[in-house]
Amino acid sequence: MKKAKKILVAMSGGVDSSVAAAVLIEEGFDVTGVTMKLWGGSSDTGCCSVSDVIDARRVADQLGIPHHVFNFGDEFDAHVVEPYVEAHALGETPNPCIECNRHVKFDKLFRRANALGFDMIATGHHAQITEEKGNFRIMRSVDQSKDQSYVLHMLTQEQLQKLQFPIGTMTKKQVREKANALSMQTAGKADSQDVCFISRTKGGRQIFLQERLEMTSGKVIDTTGVKIAEVEAVEMVTIGQRKGLGVSGERNPQYAIDVDVQQATVTVGSKNDLFCQETPIINLHWVGNPDSDILDVQTSAHGKTSRARVDGHVIWEEPRMKVAPGQSVVFYKDNEVVGSATATKTTR
Amino acid sequence: MLPILEENYGNPSGSHSMARKALRAIDDARDILAETLGCRAQEIIYTSGGTEADNLAIFGTHNALGGTIICSATEHHAVLEPTETIGGQIAKVNPDGSLDLNHLTDLLNEQTTLVSIGLVNGETGIIQDLETISDLIKELAPNALLHTDAVQGFPWLDIPTATKPADLISIAAHKFGGPKGIGLLVAKEKTKLAPMQLGGGQEQGIRSGTQDVAGIVGMAAAAQQTAHTRQETIKRITPLRNELADGLTRIEGSYETGVSRNPNGETDRSKKIAGSCHVCFDQVESEALLFLLEQENILASAASSCSSGAQDPSHVLAAMGYNRELAGGSLRLSLGYKTSNDDVKTALDIIPRSIMKLRETGS
Fold first, then answer.
1. How far is it, in rounded angstroms, from Cα A220 to Cα B23?
2. Taking CB atoms and an 8 Å cutoff, what residues of chain A touch B292?
3. What number is the ipTM of this complex?
């Protein structure tokens, strides 16, 4: 008899990874569950709180698989929390979930799993991996409304060969139905929030950043350079923001169209000024074969795609809202993630 | 314990015959425990374990006497956190884990009401010299009492001698084969404690709440047995521990805590209890090592686990000046009265192999 492949499944204590573990058992894998302890700060309410570890452990007990807890707090701090704060200091809009996937789940956990003798790892992401002649592709989930392929764009062919997304072929409804059928206590658990290390109850992002960053007060100027208001913290302003800029714009709504922390300046303009033709990018990475340079481009986790030509820049077919610097720009060919980049400052 | 649970299940605070039997059981247990601890029976306050005893010593003294409370940087969290909560002071330790007496000298004064120094460190097995510490306290802080968390020390040290200078002593039964969830605080005559929980006035009004009769009886039996066999166990386990530690320190990049070299070039482990083998390995992460060891049925630990079950970085090693990376590769092996020669041989076969494997894969 062929020996079952040893797989380590990352269990957050949520319903998706609970069902992922169950599916892998049904598929004949030798499954071990692991919960990563990533954050222990006072604002810890998210994916790494103790109650979630208990949920994951109870599900693992129910499924009859071993469960371990790994403390990756140092890695999380160095590669997710600190860069998140640094990006805000530069007036950028970071995506910490993507950095957690890049450095913690698909790097540190991969290396740990390898050292401990596992053949593969699995997560409860809503996405699919397909293979043809040794070539792997990241595909959207069958449940488009829950698709998480956007936050998986950094994966490489080497990682994809050792990775499973067991619930990518299921809708969220089916996942919950399966959890219910298995009497899992996580069946009815709410979906997790985006940024796990920022508490919603203790003042949220603003307080979290204020404790770690000296905020820069600055001026709000219009597109002609005339100062029209002041803001207490330039770092907290995001492109597209309308409220909290001290600008009365009932008849003529004014939006933040540029944030410059070094110059301590926020530029506001009309909705039209928010639109752009091009988005400059850095960190271009291809995981698949794009075939064409006209692609569907997604710039936020659950945003709609826009058609664009990718040629050093992203050149949009139709003018569209500016992309906040720091955001991931993900390129799709139909339902396949073919590549990604990071938006930098829009110049035009 | 079974007769208490099955037959004499009376409440010791009650007045009928079954209640009186339960009360008799905890009083008899108090006598036995007093003998093993070198204190008077009425000085014993039963608690739910070491943590509660530590909290009662710190908060109880603080609430009764005020003043300043000092503890060492390597104390158990059950001492450190209460001390920090009431704004107490933290005394440094030396690289070998012993208390930094110079720093303690700086901290002690007439305002000091309590100094809390653990007899044996739970992670490293390092023994503190309470006699010297007590002399310093008497000289510089005449009003201060000495508390010691002796939870780790009970199986390995003659407690009446080792804790003689202490006024308050914390004990937990599960460290010497007794049940979990039961312990006690010895509060000697001159101590003054404010109660932490109020109610029926049990335990001389210091710790209200119906006593865990079965737990107390189990604790006394285990204490008596441990005290009886202690010398014999130490004699048998010491060479086994030395063999284990010698074997592990032959691995390149290994550092044993709390030891020194004697003039013959041999490792001097006299400052550590016999049941403790504590070594740090560079380029190894404890969490990964513990996982591999568990696959081979070696159940070890590293630092302390947080409530999630994750390994937390060791505050003890940080206080001793170990860098975070080396401290992250610590391995804590406990030997007990059941440990055999074969166990040590197995450990010395598996642990070096596992360390090499982890270093090769670079995790």
1. 77
2. 116
3. 0.82
